[in-house]
């Protein structure tokens, strides 16, 4: 399957603004290919849109440290520092569940 690498380039500078799908923070587009911001029926990938920011951040920290086992998320979580992770988590939290 072919997947565009950076669909969110246009919205990379909007970290501090209110979160909407239109201004996802840098990095969020690395998540939405798998974790769709909108409802998808029958996905095997857990939904994270609408979850609490701190829950998403905690998951990411544990994936990164290896404390929580994963297939792909450990590798992905290592690509983001705490500030990036929080911005992405806050954006997902603001998306409709
Ligand atoms: C290649 C597909 C893929 C990408 C890209 C991806 N994820 Fe995941 N995510 C998964 C899968 C699969 C799981 C289930 C755990 C596992 O097997 O790694 C998961 C689990 C999670 C969970 C735990 C949810 C739960 O209820 O268990 C969180 C939080 C999460 N991902 C956040 C993110 C964030 C934030 C990003 C972007 C930085 C991201 N993911 C990018 C596939 C992906």
If you had to describe this structure to a student in words, what would you say it looks like?
The protein has 97 residues and is mostly helical. The protein has one domain (24-94): Cytochrome c-like domain (Cytochrome Bc1 Complex, Chain D, domain 2), CATH 1.10.760. It has 4 helices and no strands. Helix 2 crosses helix 4. The longest helix has 13 residues, at 53-65. It is globular, with a radius of gyration of 13 Å. Mean pLDDT is 82; it is low at 5-19. Heme C (HEC) binds at residues 27, 30-31, 33-35, 45-46, 48, 56, 59-60, 70-73, 76, 80, 88.
What CATH calls the topology is Cytochrome Bc1 Complex, Chain D, domain 2
What small molecules are bound in this structure? heme C
Strand percentage, roughly? under 5%
CATH top level assignment: Mainly Alpha
- Topology, number of strands: 0
| Protein structure class | mainly alpha
Rg for CA atoms:
13 Å
Q: Element order, helices and strands?
A: HHHH
Sequence stretches where pLDDT stays below 50 over 5 or more residues: 5-19
Name of the CATH homologous superfamily: Cytochrome c-like domain
Spatial separation of the terminal alpha carbons: 27 Å
Shape: globular
Tally of contiguous helical segments: 4
Helix content: 25-40%
In the CATH hierarchy, the architecture is: Orthogonal Bundle
Number of domains: 1
Residue-averaged pLDDT: 82
Largest sheet: none
């Amino acid at each position: 399957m072919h997947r565009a690498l950076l669909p969110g380039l246009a919205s990379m500078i909007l970290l501090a603004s209110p979160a909407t799908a239109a201004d996802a923070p840098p990095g969020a587009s690395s998540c939405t290919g798998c974790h769709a911001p909108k409802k998808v029926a029958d996905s095997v990938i857990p939904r994270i849109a609408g979850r609490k920011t701190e829950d998403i951040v905690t998951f990411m920290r544990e994936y990164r440290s290896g404390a929580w086992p994963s297939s792909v998320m450990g590798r992905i979580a290592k690509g983001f520092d705490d500030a990036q992770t929080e911005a992405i988590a806050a954006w997902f939290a603001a998306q409709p569940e």
